[in-house]
Amino acid sequence: EDQVTQSPEALRLQEGESSSLNCSYTVSGLRGLFWYRQDPGKGPEFLFTLYSAGEEKEKERLKATLTKKESFLHITAPKPEDSATYLCAVQAGTGANNLFFGTGTRLTVIP
Amino acid sequence: DTGVSQNPRHKITKRGQNVTFRCDPISEHNRLYWYRQTLGQGPEFLTYFQNEAQLEKSRLLSDRFSAERPKGSFSTLEIQRTEQGDSAMYLCASSPLNEQYFGPGTRLTVT
After folding, report:
1. Residue A92: its pLDDT value, please?
2. Predicted local distance difference test score (pLDDT) of residue B59
3. Which residues of chain B are within 8 Å of residue A43 when distances are taken between CB atoms?
4. Which of A3, A17, A84, B80 could form a disulfide with A13 if both were Cys (CB 3.0 to 4.6 A apart)?
5. Secondary-structure percent of chain B, ordered helix, strand, coil, rounded to 5
């Protein structure tokens, strides 16, 4: 059975304190791994898609990496506006188009 | 605004009533998805349309749930005989291929 586990569940950082969020997965036939940001009461906002081990993508203070078992979302010098829940999702299996989500990491950046 | 739109944004209904939600995808996207999200959880897949064809349905989609996408444009999700357990955020997403772009969601409260 497909499984996506995110850690930690919650993370509090001081402004400027870099850290990483983890997404480990067990799926049959990974077709893509997706990162989303979600603010309270809103829909998830697309950040990155990674397709193969070794791939990296960057956007402003965020950098996503992928291995055969996990993905990391690195946050460099975070600001309070980076506070949100970060969701990881996988698309797996032949023919399946839906995303299978983890439960997210709730990030709080303190000024 | 050219993003995914959903209406209504909030719906309060009494147990046993029927409700219908609407999703307008990004205009050039032929793929449309419905997800359900409860507090502290990631979104869970409900159903998937490619153009007007409903190609995938989750086991979560009981007989009380029905979705349509006439003419491959907007989509509706209807819940009949609502139960308290149906209280959740209902999210719609559209996609040109792999990346899914989410709308703001419809929050359903069943009293």
Report:
1. 87
2. 87
3. 4, 91, 93, 102-105
4. A17
5. 5, 50, 45
